[in-house]
Amino acid sequence: METVASREQREESADRFPTWVRVLFVVGLLYAFLVGIKALETGIKAFGSDFTDGLFETVANPIAGVFVGTLATVLVQSSSVTTATIVGLVGAGSLSLELAVPMIMGANVGTTVTNTLASLGFLRRTKEFRLAFAGATMHDFFNVCNVAVMLPLELATGFLTKISEWMAEWLTDLGMGGFGEGDTPIKSAVKAPVKVVDGLLDGVGANDNLAGIVMLVFGMATIFFALAFVTKNMRLVMAGRIERSINAVLMKGGGLSAILIGTVMTVLVQSSSITTSVLVPMIAAGVVTLRSAFPITLGANIGTTITALLASLATDHPAGLVIGLHHFLFNAVGVAFWYSIPALRNIPLNLAQRLATYAEVRKSIVIVYVVGGFIILPIIGVLILQ
To answer: How far apart are the C-alpha atoms of 136 and 272, rounded to whole Å?
Structure first.
C-alpha cells in the first residue's frame, strides 16, 4: 500500500509549478474565499428580515445547534466550509451568536469523520487497523468530550462569548484587520466583485429573491472552490514536509512543541483533516505512538480556527469577528484544559483504545459508529430537539 510520504513525493515530482507560483495562487484563492463570504452575506440580506428571522427559528435548542453543525460538516466534508458559512451568516445578522456557538462546536465534532474514514483503509489488517482506528477516534473523543464540558459552561456563564466580545472590541479599537462597520482597503477589495455581480443582476431586472439566490449560490460555490484549491496547492507546497516535521518534533519528545507543529501545519495547509489523516498511517505502522500523536491532533484543532478568523475579515458586522474568535478560544481553551491535566488527557485516549479493541473483533461496530454517530444520531437529534 502506498504510504503518505511516497504519495507526497510522487505528487511533488509531478508538480510542474514552482513553489512561489503556487503561493501566489494561494493568496489569490484566499481573496476569492473572502469574496465568497461577502457574496454569501449579501445574498442572505437580499431575502429581507422575515426570511432571515425564520431561517433558524426551528433550531432554537443549543443541543440541536450542535447536531446541525456536526451534520453540516459531515455532509460537506469540511469544517472550514461550515465555520466560514456560519461566520458569514452571523456577519449578515441572520444568525445569532447564541445559536452560532453550538453550531461551531458541532462543526468541530463533524470534521473528525474524515480521519476516521481514512483508518478504514487498514480494515483487512487487524493489528494495523486497531492502531489506525484508535489514532483516528481519539480526535473524535477529544472533540465530543470538549463539547460535553465547554457547552454547559458556556451556556451557564457565557465566558467564552464575553472574552471574544472583549477581544473583538480591543482589535477593532486598535484598527487591526479593519473589523467593524466601516470600509477598509481589504473590505473594499472584497466588495468590488460582489458589486459587479449585484450590478449585473440589477441590469437584467432580477428581483430581491432571485438576486439573493444567485448571490448565495455564487458565494457558496466560491467558498468551496477556494478552500478546495487552497488545500490542494498547500499540500503540494508542503509535500513531504509534514511527515518530516512531525518526526523531528517527536524525536525531541513532543508535548507543547507537538501541539505547536500541529497548529502551524494546519494553518499552512488550511485543513485539520490533512494533518490528522497523515498521522493515521504513521500510527498504524507503529512509527508514532498514540500518546505521541495526541498533541499533534490537538494542535490541528487550534490551527483549523484560522478559517473562521479569515472569514470575519469580509463581514461588516463585528459579531462575525466575535464568532471567529469564539471558535479559536473554544479550541485553545479546550486543548489547555484537557492536555494540561494527565488524568483528563488519558480519557480520550482510553476511550479510543477501548473502541478500537472492540472494533478489531467485530468490524460491524465500525459501520455502526461512523453511520450512527455522525449521520443518524445528528439527524434524530435535530428532529427531536428542533
So the answer is: 12
Closest CA to 234 of 282, 284, 306: 306
The closest of 319, 88, 53, 71 to 218, measured between CA atoms, is: 88
Residue labelled with grid coordinates 518534533? 249
- Per the CB < 8 A criterion, the answer to whether 185 and 347 are in contact is no
At residue 384, the 3 state secondary structure works out as helix
Tally of helices (H runs) and strands (E runs) in the chain: 20, 0
Residue 240 CA to residue 260 CA, distance in Å, equals 18
Helix axes 208-237, 19-46, angle to 10 degrees: 160
Q: Which residue in this structure is represented by grid cell 492536555?
A: 339
**Which amino acid is present at 271?**
S
Count of beta carbons in the 10 Å neighbourhood of residue 207: 9
Residue matched to cell numbers 494561494? 26
Residue reference for cell 446541525:
68
List of long-range contacts for 248-256, beta carbons under 8 Å, 24+ apart: 249/296, 250/288, 250/292, 254/292, 254/295, 254/296, 255/295, 256/295
132 and 280 in contact (C-beta within 8 Å)?
yes
The model carries a pTM of: 0.75
CB 137 within 8 A of CB 355: yes
pLDDT digits (tens, 9 = 90+) for 83-116: 888 888 887 777 888 889 999 999 989 888 877 8
